[in-house]
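EI: anyone free to look at a 309-residue chain?
SC: sure, send it
EI:
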Amino acid sequence: MIKKEVLTDCSIGREDLVSLKSMGNIYEICYLQKKNCKVTTQLLDKDHYFSLKTGEIFECNHIDNRAENKFQVGQSLKRLRDYINTNVVEPTHCKWVTLTYKKNMTDSKQLYNDFKRFMTRFKRRFKEYKIEYIVACEPQARGAWHMHLIIIFDRVAPFIPNATIEVLWEQGFTKISKLDNIDNIGAYLTAYLGDMEFTEENINELKKQGFNLSHLALKEVNEIEGIKLKKPKSFIKGGRLYMYPPKFNLYRISRGIKKPKKEYFSYHVAKEKAGLRLPTYSKGFTLSDTENSFTNKIIYEYYNTKRSN
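SC: here you go
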């Protein structure tokens, strides 16, 4: 059984080896006390795997929805944040577009087909620009899909009326926004993808989906999409994860999207490359495997060069 405990002391030694991930104005330093480089299992087919340690063959556990594998979902959202922060370095070159359906459209295949047709029309309409995109899909409680899309232009983005986007989308309602005055766009845009608003309708839908309401965790927000709310709203942490089909890709990117740059240095060198500033945010924890008497310590530090110490 794996046990996780939060660290009170998140200090890293000067000469400790760390990874440094560069993502636009965001830097991530990660320290692992121990690193496992050995492969312990081998997949035989879609239903069985082989343990290289014991020689036994086991059945694979297939999930019914993404909430049953929160680690996998968390990693997907983390990769999405990294892609956004790496590529959205000039907010004036970008547009943030929300695409929704006027009907209760629940087919994930149609979702991507409609999106591809929209992007084809959009690129044809603005053919004088080189355009890349990052799109995240989000299910609503009633099952209908909508998409959050970042469009990245090769220079200052043109003014685009919302009516133009609706004509190109052809499926329903749209909203277009700027991304100015946000210094951690990746964290900002992915903040609510796994959460769901706390309403009676959503609670009833979660009950149908088998959500364990005894483990219900809420968070309160005062603004959404940069707009301050007259009254704070409560969100169910992780509630939306039950709406994603198994093996569904939460996001997609265009071919020209850059990957974050990851390098390895001693801690003091990584600090220099991050600007010798104080971390914007840090966290640490230990993971213990009681069966194999193994314990590992993991520490993350995040630096935002657009913020002063």
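EI: The chain has a mean pLDDT of 81.
SC: 👍
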